[in-house]
Amino acid sequence: MSPRALLALAVLILAGPGQAEPLTWSDLRDGSLYLQPSGNDTLDIDWRPAWQADAAEEYLYLLDGHGHLQGERHIERTQTSGEQRWPLAASEHAYQLEVPGYSFRRYRVTLNASTRAQFAPAKVHFSVQAPANTVLYFRVEAGEHASLAGKFHGGVRALRVERLDDGQGQELPLKPYRAYWQFDRLALPVAKQARTYRLRLIGRGKAAFWLDGSANLFAQRADHLGPLALADGQVALRVGRKVLGRSASLGVNVPYQLPPEASYPAIDVVQPQATGWYSFVDVLRRQPGYERPMRRFYLDRYPIAQDITLLAGSGRRAVLDPDRDTREGLDAWLATSVELGGKALHYVAFADEPNLNYPDYARYARDFETLAAQVRRYPGAREAGVRIAMPASSNLVNGPLHDDSAARIGLDWARRLLASHGEQIDALAWHQWMVRDLLATRIYRTHVRQAAELVGLDAQGRPRKALLLDQTNISSGSNLSPYEQNTDFAGLWWASVAINASADGLLDMLNWFHLGDEAAWPKGMVAVDEGRGRFTAKPVALAHQFMQRHWLPHVLALDNDGFEVDALAMADGDRRSLFGVNKAGRTQHLRVDGLGKACHGATLQLFGPNQQPRDAPFICTDGQARLALAGRTLFALTWINRR
Questions:
Q1: Is there a contact between 408 and 400 (Cβ–Cβ < 8 Å)?
Q2: How big is the CA angle at 598 (ends 594 and 602), to the nearest 5 degrees?
Q3: Sign of the C-alpha dihedral computed for residues 261, 265, 267 and 272 taken in this order
Q4: Angle, helix 292-301 to helix 324-339, in steps of 10 degrees
Q5: Beta strands 105-112; 249-253: pairing state
Q6: Which of 193, 491, 522, 567 has a Cα at 20 to 30 A from 561?
Q7: Distance of CA 588 to the CA centre of its chain
C-alpha cells in the first residue's frame, strides 16, 4: 500500500463512522436549515457575492432547539465574501440556521454527515442556486393531500420526482409566466402509509421548489427525513416605567381616486392613522381640484394626523423636471393643502425613490432645491401643515435594486442633502423592501435608529427631523408570493415590523404599501374584485385591526430576552398595553413582570391563524403574568396602571 493510501486510511479510522465525508449545502439564498447533531459538530459557513453584495448588509441567525438566539452574524457591505464558524453541541432538539431572503450572497454550509439536516425552502421565491444533477429527498405522511410545486426563475426548468418504494416517477415542467406569483404544481397520490420521494432538479441555477399539504422539508439523505424536534420556548418580558417616545402612526398608501362606496366597510376595518399618496403633477395642472374630494374623504372619515405625498407624473413617472407641469401641479397640490385647513401635517417629497430612479444624485439635488423653494414661498403653506420630506429613498441602509446600487445608498443621499439643504428639510422618508423573513424584521429597529442618528436628537431625545417609513411591504414591485400576501403570514410580518420600527419611540409614520390590490400589484390590505364590486379585508387587514385596538400613543421601556417573540409596551394616561407576536410555530411560555397589583385586573386577547380575536386566561402571581402563546399568534395584554 502506498504512503498516500495509508495516510487516507488513517484519516478514515481517526474520523470514525459518519465523519469521513462532510455534508455540504451550496449556494443557499433564502430558507431555513434545521440541524440535529447526534454528536458535537461544527457549522462552517462561507459566502461569496451573487449580485450587488457591496450595497447590502445581511444577517445570519442560529437558533437552538428552544428558539433562543445561539449565534448572530452581521455581514457588512464590505464583506462581500467571508466565513463564519459556530459549534453545535449534540442535542435532542433541532437547531435552526436562518438565511434570510432576498439574499445578495450565496451561502455554503458544511457540517458532519451524521448531523441530521433538513431544508425548508421559501415558497415561490427562489431559495438556492443549484448545481447540475442536484438530488434531494422528501417525505409525505400517510393520508396527506400533498403537492410538489415549483417556479421557473431562469435556472432549474423541471422537477423530476420518484417514489422510492416502487420507482414510479413524474416530471413537473416549470414554465415561464408573465405574473411572478404564478407557478406550477403536481399533486402527489394520497397513500395509506408514509412515502419517501427522490427529487431531481433538472437544469441548474436559480431553483424554487416546495411542498404544500405536507411538511415543507427536504434532505440530501433519505434517513435524515422526519418530524422536526422543536421544544417549547421560554420568554421573559419586563415592562418599564420610562416613556421612550411616541409609537408610529400606522397607515397605508391609498389609490389616486375616490374609493367606491362598496369599499367603505373594508377600509373601515383598516382605520388608517396615516396615508401615503402619489400626486400626478400633469393631472393636477389640468384639473387643479382633482385631489380635493379624495383627501377630504380620508381626513374626515379616519383619525389621520399626518400624510405624505410623493410628486410624480402619470404612470408613476418618478423623474420630475421643474417644468410647467411640475410647477403648476405642485401649486395645485399646495392650494388644496391650504384649503384643508391644517387638519393634519402634509409632508411632500419630490419624486418617488430618487436613488433608484434618478440618473444621479446631483440631478435630484438640483430638482429638490428648486421645488423646495417653491413650497417655502407659497402663502399659508406652513401654517396649513405643509412640510418637506426627503428623499423617499428605496431602502435606507441597503441600496436599491440597481446595477449601480453601492453609489445609491438612501442613507448616503440623505446625508448629502441634509448637509447642503438641512434648513429646508422637515422629515427623512424612506421605503423598505425585501425583508421577507420573520426573524429578520428586527432590522427595522436598527434602520430607524440609524435614521435617527443621521438627523440627530433634540434636548427631549426626539429626532430633529420627523422619521417617516412611508412605504413598506414584504416584497418590492410585483415580486409577490401569495403564501405571504394572502395568508396570516402577512399579519405576523406586519405586526413584527410595526413593533420593531416603534420599539425606541423614534418613528413618526409607518405605512403599508398599499390599501387595495391592483392588477399588477396585488399586495393591498383589501382584496379588490371590481367586476363584482366586492372589497374584502385580507388577513393582514384583520391583523392590523386587532393591532390598532391595542396601539397606544406612547412607547414604554421593555426588556425582552426572546428572539421569536416581538413585543411593544405602550401607554395612554393610565392605560397600558403589551402588544406582541409569536412568529414561530412553537408554543412560547411568557413571563411578564412589571404589572404589579394591576396584574389581577389585566385582560389578555389572542389573534391567531383563524383571524378571530378571543379572550384567553393567564396566571397572575406576585404581580407577574404567565401565559402560554400558541405558534403564529398575536397577543395583547392590557391593564390600568394603579399609581
A1: yes
A2: 100
A3: positive
A4: 40
A5: unpaired
A6: 491
A7: 22
| pLDDT of res. 355 | 97
pLDDT average, residue stretch 237-264: 96
Phi, psi of 309 (to 5 degrees): -120, 130
| Amino acid at residue number 348 | V
Locate cell 411591504: which residue? 473
- Tell me the one-letter amino acid at 202: I
Helix, strand and coil content of the chain, in percent to the nearest 5, comes to 25, 35, 40
**Reported pTM:** 0.95
Find the largest Cα–Cα distance for the chain.
Answer: 95
Q: Which cell is 269 given?
A: 376595518
Beta strands in 464-564 (DSSP E): 466-472, 509-512, 526-529, 534-537, 554-560
**Helix extents (H) in 205-291:** 264-270, 281-286
pLDDT (tens digit, 9 = 90+) per residue, 403-460? 899 999 999 999 999 999 999 999 999 999 999 999 999 999 999 999 999 999 999 9
Give the C-alpha separation, 449 to 434, whole Å: 19
Written as nine digits, the cell of 20 is: 469521513
Residue in 550, 542, 585 with CA at minimum distance from that of residue 567:
550
* Domains of the chain, first to last: 18-224 (2.60.120.380), 248-515 (3.20.20.80), 559-640 (2.60.40.1180)
User: From CA 385, how far away is CA 179, in angstroms rounded?
Assistant: 41
Cα separation, 393 vs 400, whole angstroms:
8
At how many degrees (to 10) do helices 443-455 and 410-421 cross? 20
* 62, 64, 68, 73 alpha-carbon torsion, rounded to 10°: -10
Closest by Cα among 121, 141, 124 to 225? 141
User: Which residue shows C-alpha cell 421544544?
Assistant: 231
